[in-house]
Amino acid sequence: MNKVKTVYDHIRSNNIKTILLVICFPLIFIALIFLFTWIVAPAQTAMETAVRVAIPTFIACAVWLLISWAFGDSMMLNSAHAHEIFDTDAENREIFRSVENVAIAAGLPRPRVYIIDDDSMNAFATGRTPRDASVALTRGIIKKLNKLELEGVIAHEMAHIGNRDIRLDMMLITGVGVTVFAADMILRMAMVSGNDNDNKNNGAAILIMVWLAFMVFNWIITPILRMAVSRNREYAADATGAQITHNPMALANALRKITTDSRVECLDKVKSMAAVCIANPGGPREFISSLMATHPPVEKRIERLESMAS
After folding, report:
1. Is 53 exposed, middle or buried (0-12, 13-18, 19+ CB in 10 A)?
2. What is the pLDDT of residues 244-284, one digit of tens each?
3. Catalytic position from the list 84, 157, 265, 306
4. pTM of the prediction?
5. Which of 96, 151, 177, 273 is the residue whose CA sits 20 to 30 A from 184?
């Protein structure tokens, strides 16, 4: 007889998968540079090149991460045109209390609460740590979900805060930004090196191979790994949210409604925000983009939540 997976089993399994996937990022990055360089240079030169490229890249990632760490949450809230609400606002007092109650149930500090003036249904969480986190909800999701469903959505976002998913996604976004910039710089260096008559062609060839390694990493490996990490974190947030409210079906029913109208117009051009929202804010996807989506199919998420309820 097969063992029925509990909420804790789902959380533990997804956490382990996420750790393994994050470890893959630097390992694959170094391996790609080595393998591509090895095509035009001896193995020792290829390894030295991989180390010389990896060290400054990782340092640049760390510096840019600190900048994102300081300003990333405010940039995300500004992109969504979100405005903060307080318990003194009569019209928003009930939603404010719902967030406060879910935070207490989750054992986390109450986050700041923001409203996005959009009639669609979506939500996201942001912040560096649980102590300075924020939850943003669209007007549509507040109006169209009942109280239990809305609490399920809030619990999902509180789970992202408690699981430190915001910090993880910030690291992934930062890493991608740095490697894209570095690839452009390396291509320029290769062009200058190739035009230098005093320079050996092998130097330019190595730079071209390093650039190719960056391109493969940026446009093939990173989207696949980031998709896998993000999907695992969504499953984990669903499971943790169900644990907080003790009502998996409320979140399942909320997801059924949200998927019918999740597009947030002001986020159409902010592709990096897709991963932090509870559902894709860009509206319906084509088949190819669905394969590379940061969120798992909503049917799978609902199926897992229903299995927890049973």
Report:
1. buried
2. 999 999 999 999 999 999 989 888 777 767 778 898 887 65
3. 157
4. 0.77
5. 273
